[in-house]
Amino acid sequence: MANPIKKMDDQLVSAIKNDDHYAFDQLFHKYGSSLFSFVVSVLKDDFEAEEAVQDVFLKIWEKRRDLDTSLSFKSYLFTIALNTTKNRYRKKLQENKYKQDLAFEFNANRTSDLDVFEYRNLLDYVDKIIEKLPPSRREIFILSKKDGLKNSEIAQLLHISEQTVKNQLVSAMKFLRSEAVKDDNEPGFFFFLFFYRL
Fold first, then answer.
1. Which residues contact 105 (CB under 8 A, 6 or more apart)?
2. What is the mean pLDDT of the segment spanning 94-106?
3. N or C: which end of the chain has fewer CB within 10 A?
4. How far is CA 189 from its chain centroid?
5. pLDDT at 117
6. Can you give the pTM of this predicted structure?
7. DSSP structural state of residue 159
8. Distance (Å, whole) CA 15 – CA 114
9. Measuring CA to CA, which residue among 60, 8, 11 is closest to residue 32?
């Protein structure tokens, strides 16, 4: 006897293969909550989990013509969700790494531990000083330091020469150091120390 849940899913999948938005909404309402619970348990962020769930269903809609009703839709859905969550988690770690490194550098030069308030202020400081960079230079800097791309990868992505990427990064470093030493405070000083090593 056919599994009634799979049978219902198969009917909905067949419908969305024919561009049925109502069937798509039904699948979203059926699996959206459980998918969100799964994703948020990993990402620990409601807003990011909601975005991830939306990404998953967007991929389902984009690939609706390729859906196979002989396979379990639920398994397929959660496989996409798992891959999406893994990618977002890796990106989240990478995005925060350079700021966390800075915070550790700051803390290593202090006689007392960095408290939560100081840590948050330091991360905010990093964002504010980077925001002062010209848009194109800021984009290259973030792709390099935040996303961890190589100069050759940035050059290919932005359709510019690798030398241009190098020049922009050098200019960005000079600017960030000059801005940091202008600030007569500990975050500015340790920001300078951190980026001087890069």
1. 190, 193, 194
2. 60
3. N
4. 28
5. 54
6. 0.48
7. T
8. 56
9. 60
Delineate the domains of the chain, giving CATH numbers in brackets: 4-91 (1.10.1740.10), 109-196 (1.10.10.10)
Q: Could you count the other beta carbons within 10 Å of the beta carbon of residue 67? A: 15
Reported as a single tens digit per residue, the pLDDT across 135-186 is 999 899 888 877 778 899 999 999 999 999 999 998 988 887 777 666 555 4
Q: Measured between alpha carbons, how far is 36 from 125 in angstroms, rounded to an integer? A: 32
d(CA 73, CA 14): 11
Token pair for 93: 């770690």
CB 118 within 8 A of CB 186: no
DSSP 47: H
Residue owning tokens 């948050």: 120
Q: Which pLDDT score, from 0 to 100, does residue 130 have?
A: 83
- Which tens digits make up the pLDDT trace of 102-145? 555 555 544 444 455 555 666 677 778 788 899 999 899 888 87
What type of residue is 49? A
